[in-house]
Design brief:
alpha+beta, Immunoglobulin-like, 6 helices, 2 domains, 6-stranded antiparallel beta sheet, globular
Length: 291
């Protein structure tokens, strides 16, 4: 009897103190975001850990920050939540409110047991608040479309070894071909006039040059807006060789950074934070005539 009681206690303690991986708590992405408004959004995190799901109720809070100030996060109040279920998969759904409009955010869910022991944190969820301006609405839709593809890449559906579309074939590239530019033009298709099918950085730079929106990297801090095009030289040797999408500019002390969404970054779709004075060779600002 003593051994049985001790074993149960030991197992309970193991569950309470184990730190689970980010994959055990995975944010979900949807094409239109999740309840995105001018000042709020919702984060839904799927729970793939049986150990966490069996607790039935947990305490949770969202840690969040605008990308332009990512080093100063805030948290929502700690509260108790019960799991919802989608096709048998448990999830947690929490709102984040009181935000700045037309702003990129990242957020992650921190989960605790009812005794306050930290069980784990999700990977970061990226999203944007909305605005009233019609052009701002189009930018929102572009960014959210791109982030939905980021989610598919995280799931292993696209990119290297993609189980649904290998490499950049979903975006019009051939198997084994670099596909950063195809990704940007594919995301912009349906929102920007005449961008469909542009398959290289020279074509994208010309697309913005003709509209009067092409400038050098010095314009990024003041001109760039969500969804704009970024030309990059990732090896800083041979000139422009990579394409990405602008998400946010961030200044930390004297250091300046640019948040990007990039196809074919490490053969995946990734959100990156890069120093402004590295890699960037040009900015393609979306002009009114291109919407």
């Amino acid at each position: 009897m003593f051994r049985s009681w001790f074993t149960k206690l030991a197992l309970a303690l193991i569950v309470s103190v184990r730190a689970f991986s980010a994959e055990a708590l995975q944010p979900a992405y949807y094409l239109q975001g999740i309840d995105n408004t001018h000042t709020s959004f919702r984060i839904i995190v799927k729970v793939h850990s049986k150990e966490i799901a069996q607790l039935k109720n947990v305490r949770a809070q969202v840690e969040y920050a605008p990308l332009h100030s990512s080093t100063s996060p805030q948290t929502t109040p700690m509260r108790m939540y019960a799991f919802g279920y989608d096709k048998g998969v448990p999830y947690l759904s929490l709102p984040v409110t009181g935000l700045q409009e037309t702003t990129m955010y990242r957020a992650r869910l921190n989960v605790y047991n009812l005794n306050g022991v930290h069980l784990g944190s999700s990977s970061y969820y990226y999203t944007t608040t909305t605005g009233d301006n019609p052009k701002s609405i189009i930018r929102n839709r572009m960014v959210l479309k791109g982030l939905r593809e980021f989610y598919d890449s995280e799931l292993g559906l696209v990119g290297k070894g993609g189980t649904v579309a290998v490499d950049g074939t979903r975006y019009g590239a051939d198997v084994g071909e670099a596909w950063c530019s195809e990704f940007y033009s594919w995301v912009g298709t349906g929102y920007l006039k005449n961008i469909k099918g542009i398959s290289n950085f020279n074509g994208l730079m010309e697309f913005f040059r003709k509209a009067g929106g092409l400038s050098n990297r010095s314009a990024i801090p003041t001109v760039a807006r969500r969804g704009d095009y970024l030309a990059m030289d990732t090896d800083e040797v041979q000139g422009t060789n990579h394409s990405g999408m602008f998400l946010a500019y961030e200044k930390v002390g004297k250091d300046e950074f640019v948040w990007t969404l990039e196809g074919n970054s490490g053969k995946k779709i990734r959100v990156n934070r890069r120093p402004l004075n590295k890699v960037f060779t040009g900015l393609g600002h979306i002009m009114a005539s291109q919407f």
